[in-house]
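Journal club prep — side note

Before the paper discussion, L.F. wants everyone to see what a predicted structure for a comparable chain looks like in token form. Sequence:
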Amino acid sequence: MGEVLNLTGGLAFFLYGMHLCAEALKSGSNRSVQRVLEKMVHGRIRGTFFGIGMTMLTQSSSATSVIALSMVNTSLITLAESAPILLGGAIGTSFTVQLISFRIAEYALLPVFFGIILILFSGSERWKLAGSVFLGFGLIFFGMEMMSLAVEPLISNPAVPEAMAWLADRPVLAFLSVTIFTAIIQSSGAMIGLLISFSVAGSGHSPHDLLSVLFPMILGANVGTCITAFLAGIGTRREARRVAVLQLVLRLVAVILVWPVSGFFVNLILLVSGSDAPRAIANAHTLFNVAATLALLPFIGILTGFVRRLMPAKGDDNEYVSVSLDDNLASAPALALAGVQRELVRMAGLAGQQARDTILAFFGAGNGKIWQQIENGDTRIDRMYLAISEFINRVLGQRTTRAIRTIGERQFVCAASLESIADIAVKNILPLAKKYARTGEPFSQAGQNEILELHTKVVEALVRLEDALVTPEKSDWQGLVAECEEISQLVDTMRLHHLSRLVSGERGSSETSVIHLDLIESLRRMENGIKHIASLHTVPQEAA
């Protein structure tokens, strides 16, 4: 009974250590890292290295598959572009397995000690995150040591050779059982770690016999980890759900290719690893995934087409992706906020369309249709603002760096300002347009020309804002602030011109005076919203 408790306790430490490392590394991932990784998602070779790097960062190939699924769900990459990321993720998970195989568990409590010291006594958020990484790695190796000690009495039992011989004759059963167990714990790294624990405890058995029995289990661990992507795909678009199927197809095809030559593969691994069984298991896991990636990369197009035939097109394949926010990315703050930034660009575009429509509400034909269009646009932007604000709150509700928090808070204010700009169109300018239509009196020609000029400048500022939000770090925000100040001065000048026309007795100006003044003031309020966003980006920001 004690051995079972130690085994389950060791596995719990191992899983929690991996979770702690992943959460700390994702929380601390900064904008510069995120920008480098974003450039690597396109192309087979770059996508493969992206998958390797992301898995080493998160300590989880399952997390990488979820990120790939999320990118497809938000149309950041295509289904075919996700395949190299999935293959690279399988290689990346070997990093932890290789570390485990060096059997440094006797030093496990040293990083645990330093990790706890940093968490408890450091005043810097970055050092606290570093402490979590140290603590996580220490718990991984401490859990490994517990599992090794727990299985030693079990595997030394005289019945073990008989069980090994029985499993050696039934490799399919060994493969399926480990596939199911890995799907339950959702970690191929933990499963491989458990197999290494068995090999450490079973050092009295032939390395060849051990690896021959455990090799189908290694393959099963690689397949079982696909369950995470299927769970993450619930509620996403059909194209994103295909990513989970594609990952399963890639892993199964790799298993089918290597299964007939598994005896040769085992001999090759032992030739490289010698008599060290733990190293042999780690090397088998690594070389299997490297070989699978090299073999399958040229056939990604064929495999992607096969997945599409398995999951034929339906209506949502052609739907426009209205939101760039994905809950699966919320635990990776830098990537999550990059999705928010893309949504802010789209929100600025919709606000710009609202501003363009306002002039048609006054001077365009078919005013009723334009009025309805402005009202519908406002509803859409309101929903977008609600989604963005809730998503940012979810991202910032977890532990992250101060720099990431600053970016999220700035994005929150930016979204609120864009929503206010859209509100001005529907709550202030649209009622003026309806009132203008009821009066039946046109603006004076001079007044109308001024309104058109002011409106054009505000729309141009919104277009410039949208462009600036695409690459906020490289944009001329000071220039946009200056442009907004010129618009504000123009409004002051127009007010004086309008009052001069009133004094001179122009009939059009007197009949529509209130509407005219309220309209140019509403356009000034739009300009103020743009300037507020631009001013936010001129404030020096702590490096992420």
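L.F.'s comment for the group: The chain has 24 helices and no strands. Keep this in mind when we get to the figures.
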